[in-house]
Amino acid sequence: MPVFLDGQQNLAALTVPGVYGDIVLPSPFIAGTPTNIEGLVGVGSWGPLNSLIPVSKPSDAAIQIGPPMRRDYDISSYVSAASQVGGAIGFLCVRVSDGTDLAASASIQSGALTVTGKYTGTLGNGITFSLQQGSLANSLMAVIAFPGLVPEQFNNIMGPTPASGSATFSGNPVANDTLTIAGTAITFVVSGATGLQVNIGSSLAVTLSNLLNLLQTSADAGLVKCNYSLSGSVLTIVANQFQGTGTNAGSGGNALTLAKTSTAITVSGATLTGGVGTWQTFWTNAAAVINAGNATRGPSFTVVATAGTSTLVPLLSTTITLSGGTDGAGNVTDATLVGQDIVPRKGMYALRQSNCDCFTLCDLSTSSFYAAIASFALSETMLGIFATVKGDTIQNAIATRINSGVDTPWFKLILGDWPTFFDSFNQLSRLISPAAFGIGIYGNLSPQQSALNKPLQGISATQRSQLGQTYSDTELSLINTGGIDAILPPTSSPGGFYFSFATGRNCSSNTAANGDEYTRMTNFLIRASQSKAAGAFVGQLQSIQPNDQTRAKAKALFDGFSAQLASPEVGLGINGQGMIDKPWMVICDLTNNPPALQAQGYLFLYWQVRYLNVIRYFVVKFQGGGNVTVIDTGSNQLPSPSQFATVNASV
């Protein structure tokens, strides 16, 4: 009898007696989306344009995008700096160009094969190509080496199958004797060979073996070179496909005939047969294997190949380096980074539906783009992290934020006091936008946490700290109330001698939503509510009965996820804290799903979650003096805050 999933069979209309298997799938649960994947838009030296390029660490970026370069908008520089904050971070990178980018290429043996980088960029100028002997007979191996990767080996690319034949012989050639090979008469001379003559030499033993050696190494035009073996009076000849020239070097149906034209030579019945293909076949096969792979490996990750019409014999062990690749980075602007929101999407808009937690457009400084960026960030539930121009002042940064019209929790602006980090690839310390370390810290923090007072590993100085400048309380007050953030020097960080962010705030004027932890936690939870587990309720049925199981399952789904978030195991377990506070509330019953709304296809679920609160002001109430009465804490009866202030009022 049939087996089916629950709901697929009309159980009220069964007509055939028997046992039916009705499989009821278990209820799904909500799995949170990652919050450590950060989006970067900028320029690179390799990789597809306006596409998502996943990168985990700087070594990945060096291969997928190109190594860090000292230039504006460089993605790998941001990866290198942000990764120094911590190793939990990952990136989705979008490479843009000014349209002048070119792919590196090389012409192999005058166009017999053209090898071109799979992507544009200067990293392709380090790709090399060579041919080696293959494992199988009559085959070659193409080797493609990309900087930082194990060379790709395309083994057993078949060339032409050599023709072969045998004959008996007697006698040896002497001067002025001739031998006809495929209709071409060859004359043997003692010295001074010209044209179609072969010098057998006065001191050389005049034997057929020496003759064939000379024929094989001769540069005379019209000769078909061959391999041979002698066994008694039998001469075996095989066309040498690695040295042969002309149509007889492995082309089926053609023959090599040795004919006697002198009484001193007797050769009979020598006809080469069985040859298949020409060297053009090899070049075609090589391009096909590189582009599409074969039974033992896939296509090349780094190049594409195009075969010409050449019949040239391949040169082995000759390494050829691709050249001509360009990045197209010289004329990129802030507008290029923002891109376009029509298909094909470009720049920032290529991050749509990427589920990044935070993102930035590398080195963007044009504040007129902030409003569009903030709108995009909200639509994609991401936090945009940006910084003002290098060497900016607090007053100008606040004015930039106000004048840009950005007042939203989904945009963070950092003062342009640019930090210094060590670029290990270029072996120097250099400045980078604070946005790189903003991306770095949030890529290494769970979403319920604030960047406030968290160590920014990898920073050795900022522009202000190099001059010995610190932030006064007045300046810090402006920063905290101005909707911006700044990097504090070690002497100003509350928790230790490290660089840290001063506010952990976004650009919102809503005092209940201006912490970055609000934005990231809200994004995390709203993305979770749109998961496939929740989406599975679309198309299901509900009733007006109080005990409707569809609504009960929806409530259980969100109650279960909330309980998981409140568990210390997923939060700061050492402090007994989860990712959210207790209690939470989920309502999905007839109180918010009356029959009239059900009839219109609605299912409402109310979900209330209390976030954990960030400590910003740790106030220590201190009282000391010779007349202070100290309460005995051994009784475990500690005073309340009001009692603390009045406990000694009568003293």
Short description:
It is built from 15 helices and 30 strands. It is an alpha+beta fold and 651 residues long.
Q: What does this protein look like?
A:
This protein is α+β, with helices and mostly antiparallel strands. It folds into 4 domains: 37-98 and 329-518, 3-Layer(aba) Sandwich (Rossmann fold); 105-159 and 279-321, Sandwich (Immunoglobulin-like); 164-268, no CATH class; 535-651, no CATH class. Helix content is 20%, strand content 20%. The protein is built from 15 helices and 30 strands. Strands 4-5-3-21-22-23 form a 6-stranded mixed sheet. The protein has a 4-stranded antiparallel sheet with strand order 10-9-8-20, with helices on one face. Helix 2 packs across helix 8 (434-442). The chain is elongated, with a radius of gyration of 39 Å. The protein starts with a strand and ends in a 5-residue tail after the last helix. Mean pLDDT is 88; it is low at 242-255 and 647-651.
What structural class should be given to the helix and strand makeup? alpha+beta
The profile of the biggest β sheet is:
6 strands, mixed
CA radius of gyration is: 39 Å
State the helix count. 15
Beta content: 15-25%
List low-pLDDT spans.
Answer: 242-255, 647-651
Strand adjacency order, main sheet: 4-5-3-21-22-23
The fold-level CATH name of the largest domain is Rossmann fold
Principal-axes geometry comes out as elongated
Measured between the Cα atoms of the first and last residue, the distance is: 92 Å
Number of domains: 4
Overall pLDDT: 88
CATH architecture of the largest domain: 3-Layer(aba) Sandwich
Percentage of residues in helical conformation: 10-25%
Instruction: Please count the beta strands (DSSP E, at least 2 residues each).
Output: 30
Output the CATH class name of the largest domain: Alpha Beta
